[in-house]
Amino acid sequence: MKKSYQEINEKIKRGEAVVLTAEEVSEMGRTMSPAEVAGKVDVVTTATFGPMCSSGMFINTGHANPPIRMEKVTLNGVPVFSGIAAVDLYIGATENHPEDPAYGGAHVIEDLISGKDVELVAHAKGTDCYPLKHIHTTINRDNINEMVMFNPRNAYQNYPVAVNTTNRIKYTYMGSLLPRLGNANYSTSGELSPLLNDPELRTIGMGTRIFLGGTTGYVGWYGTQFKTNPELNEHGVPVSNAATLALIGDASMMSNSFIKAAYYEKYGVSVFVGIGIPIPLLDEEMAARVMIRNEQITTRILDYGDPEHPELGRTTYDKLMSGEIELNQKKIKTASLSSIYKAREIAEILKNLVKEGSFLLSEPVEMFPRGKGLKSLEIR
Amino acid sequence: MVLRFPADTVNEPITYTLIKEYDVLINILNADITHGKEGNLLIEMAGNENNVNEALVYLESKEVEISPVVKTILFREDLCIHCGACSSVCFPGALNMESRTGLLQFSPEKCVACELCIKACPLRLFELNFGVN
Predict the structure, then answer these.
(1) Among A104, A113, A283, B8, which residue is least crowded by beta carbons within 10 Å?
(2) Residues B12 and B63 both lie in one domain
(3) Surface of A (33-52) touching B: CB under 8 A
């Protein structure tokens, strides 16, 4: 049985679409075949809420009178990129406050989304058309023209588990890693994760309408470090980090419940991004994909104690989520850096939006490239 | 412990005497002493049992008030997003992810105030509290 986007959207508009979360459809898959699931379910909602460093926000502050062509700019003391037009700025989530390593771009973004005033300081050389040389004022969500989140790399399709075999605690972007395999941290929502439910990217492409940070957003491009030639396991799922998404959305409509600034000790600032992606069950093949369960998703365990991150073993998400894995005959406590609780909340919200007819599915304008690998930076 | 110094002993080198004369290990965690007024000093003291006891007698002789304190961890649970970053470093098992709901559970009675969660939490929701016992 095949369904088109148009047919599914017509059902959504009539309030007749059957919508389940990816966890619910995985459970259903224990007793039903892909053909039965495809016949019964129209849309499956996937979600993730994890730290995603490659995120940021464009803002346009509006012009002062007299106008300034902002060159060196800080927001709450955090340097922001101003190498674009006069009052266009880009706040990178991981940019640090020079004197406070635990405060950075992500906190400025969260403050602006929360409606707080943020201190703007800008300097310029002054030009004939932009004579002002200094400005010191405050901006907030309501007194600027635009704030547009644009995240170059989000929603990684799978990610390794981090452990530490050295004798010292390691503070990493994968959290605090205790010495001698004292813990294991992972950061993917498993069977709920968007790109693990559509591993071949049949329904997620450029222009896909998504839930981003509490409002509607879009897939703008494939993400940076996009890789579509990874090793697959027996269920057709990449065993390591593979595809990624570049996402865009109106940050002035976002909520600080779904965009959260984070600081990882001795690493720096990052940001939790809440993402939900609806997947249309176009056919039996898509149904089989979204029925994937945690025990069918493999990931690699890497030693973050070694700068080259050698692989120490492999595991599956059912084991990771049980709270304990076994490695080198040792039981290791596991924890997720992404929030499964928040991912479930997003999947439920998106499910209800689709069910009530206020969130239609969009067919990608263009599909993503296939067979794309990664390059390394050669030092020469 | 918190040592409360009466105003007239604030100028005496009491910490120096404790270390030099009684051979105890002093770790100063917080100090709040203003010249001519009462002062508070939050310290950890360790060493040979006899030396520690004699040091305490010395402090009493100087009318320094001694209050034992307990380190506890304060957790702003209402702001938690339920990632598991703190739970994976919590070896006494005071912080645990409830696998069915995905919610973080904090059992303060199991906490030994090792402080690993303070650095592990990306939202900085844990802080150390020194309460007088």
Answers:
(1) B8
(2) yes
(3) 49-51
Handedness of CA A27, A33, A35, A36 (dihedral sign): negative
Among residues 45-104 of chain B, which lie with CB inside 8 Å of chain A? Answer: 81-89, 91, 96-97, 99, 101-103
Stretch (H or E) spanning A136 = strand A134-139
Domain that holds residue B82: 73-128
Q: Specify which residues A121 forms β-bridges with.
A: A74, A136
Q: Is residue B133 part of a domain?
A: no
pLDDT tens-place string over residues A65-120: 999 999 999 999 999 999 999 999 999 999 999 999 999 999 999 999 999 999 99
> Hey, what are A159's tokens?
């990610």
Q: Which helix (H) or strand (E) holds B129?
A: strand B126-132
Q: Which residues of A touch B124 (CB under 8 A)?
A: 102, 263
Residue B122 at interface with chain A, using a CB cutoff of 8 Å:
yes
- Tens-place pLDDT, residues A135-183: 999 999 999 999 999 999 999 999 999 999 999 999 999 999 999 999 9
Considering its fold, how many domains does chain B have in total?
2
Flag if A51 and B102 touch (Cβ within 8 Å).
Answer: no
* pLDDT reported for residue B35: 67
Q: Which two tokens stand for residue B130?
A: 């020194």
* Residue A259 main-chain phi, psi, to 5 deg: -130, 115
Residue A55 Cα distances to A216, A268, A293, A305, A308, angstroms: 17, 14, 29, 26, 25
What are the Cα distances from residue A75, in Å, to A70, A109, A121, A139, B122? 12, 10, 7, 9, 21
